[in-house]
Amino acid sequence: PREDYVIKCFYFLFIYLLRRSILYLSHNYVLTSHYNNGFASGDLCMLLCFEPDHKILEFHSTNKAVIGVNLAGQRLLLKSSDRYFLSYDMLPSTISEEKYLDAVVNMVNFHMAFGWPRNKAHHLLNEIWPSYKRSHKITIADRRSIWTLVNQEEFLNFKLLNYLQVFPKVIGTCGHMYAVEFIPPLDSNLYFHGPKYRAVHKSMGTLKILQDSLNEAVHMCDVKRENFGESVAYPNRLMVLDGDMVFTDSRLNALFHSLRCKSDTDCTFFSCTANCNQTTGYCSRRHNSNFEVSVTYFDSFYCRVLFANILNEFLGINLGKGCQKALFSYSLKFARCSRNILFNFFTVSAIFINDLHLHLHTVIL
Hints:
Layout: H1 2-36, H2 45-50, E1 55-61, E2 65-71, E3 74-80, H3 97-112, H4 121-128, H5 131-135, H6 140-150, H7 153-160, E4 170-174, E5 177-181, H8 198-211, E6 218-220, E7 228-231, E8 234-240, E9 246-248, H9 249-257, E10 268-269, E11 272-277, E12 282-286, H10 290-314, H11 321-364
Antiparallel strand pairs: 1-2, 2-3, 3-5, 4-5, 6-9, 7-8, 10-11, 11-12
């Protein structure tokens, strides 16, 4: 009966909300306990632990902990690669500050391959730990908290590549958790409400920024719709919401060069691919680009949504997702060649014209 179905829905919804609240409360209780006992620190701890009116909006803890909260009237995402502070391997609290700074610089260079010099360790701390700029001192709790943060690639990408202005801003930290501004992920409605290929055009802006990075190119190895979002502050680009699979050119090449292989299929790392060097038995540099992967993904996704929309709006056919995919795949085999030729022609032409304009502008100046 319909009444039983409604009751079951409310029951499962209640269980889900209860479980989410319990997980968050236990997580927050442990973090608050660490803060109160002087074990963890951060500029957001006071607000996060003692603000009475903050609300839990979402809680995910599959691959990493992601908590959506409304804190002091601002919607934020609290993130960490592990749920609990003590999940991270800590450095001995007795080591000297010099050895501690060496360890921090080495960890950042491992994740980012920046080649950050040891004598610039204080500048690195200024970027990672804002309160260090004011006091030039770090406590034992600060040391532990900083160490958990530099072990998280996404945090380092968001903080040290923030000059690119394609990542969410880090608002503050508490222990191993870092809070970033909430940017809504792309909605599928974006593709058929508004200008055609709007998302692709915006992604090109983002990809050009990553490619022309000040130091070296930055690679994205997990290109999918939910990893991009739109920010009012930057209307002509997409924001990269997930920084776990973002790598500097040096770091990605080091990763590929460490992979043993027998064929090219062994040299695939999510969206990033390389060739297998049969002489050395290791993978070579990445051979596909951010642009290629993004165009392929967004083009395919856009056409699939548009195809289903045309069936529904003009022919009155409303197919299930499975039927849509099956029918679309047959139609796509016929249309792919002509569509991609036209699309790539106009896309490459646009990039060429843009680069030519920049070149002429530089020459004139």
